[in-house]
Amino acid sequence: MQTPENGKTILLFFRKAGPSDKRSFSRIAKDAIRPIYKRLVNGQSQTGFDVSFTMLVEALRSTGHDVRVNDYETAERHPDYPVGLVGSTALLDGWTLPNPALLGPSLHDHPGMARDLFADGRFRKLLVLSDWTMDLYESHYPGRCIKWFAGFDIDEWPDRAKRPKTIDFILYDKIRWAQHVAQPLFVQPILAALESRGLSVRVLRYGKHHHSRYLQSLDEARALLFLCEHETQGLAYQEALASNIPVLAWDRGFWGDPIWEWFGDRVKASSVPYFSPDCGMTFAKLDEFDETLDAFMSRIADFAPRRFVAERLSREESARIYRDAYFGIA
After folding, report:
1. Which of 89, 65, 90, 77 is CA-nearest to residue 12?
2. Glycosyltransferase among the record's keywords (predicted)?
């Protein structure tokens, strides 16, 4: 078995989010190790948070690292060896290990929730998931933040654009707040615009469908219409990009969580933080949708989203960023 001294071992500590999660750490360790991303993409239902952690573990292991999850014994024997803390803030409660720690991704929703985070000398750096979260967290923790992303092995994702299509769009509704307002004033007019053009659509509501249903829909659809106030990374729409399915996204430009009002000015944000003209198109307001939709449909055969994922969101680069950050804190 590899040991920390040879520079290949990475000690990760993981705890799922959940305010009432009082399980033992031994149980948490089992829950952390159990998820396998290949099972997920074949239909296992998990949150994006769980998937992101599993993608991190797989990326590091695929590049030759011995990744150990919640291995307190090894960390205690080597108090100067770095550790990575990933997950909910409950992981920080009562944290006793003296090891230098790389924090994130995840943990706090806003840096204002932990203004004195780095007053603890064990905590060295914080991973954030996108440019807009980098701007937000760096404004509170200058010099402490590193941008990281969960990376894709493009070979594990089929090119679904080549498969026979039976619908034009998946409308992926991930609107989190004010659904009672969003449905009649925003979603329904968008559906009407699609119908008026004779475009077929399948609506999937976030949290109301199984992941296997989403993957099946990517097989059958020509494009994804992604409606979400903001994303820190956005694994669902990136799974479409990896599958070579172009994305038309609502990207209004600011953070939707009302928690921002507790801490100051409205936060600039994106619903598609990793995106380029190869991936598709975006619109900010409802009155821009018709024109953007027509432009998108006129170019639908020209987009190359799979290439974007291979070049910008690779598993190898994800592993490199984390590895350099992890050993850099030692």
Report:
1. 65
2. yes
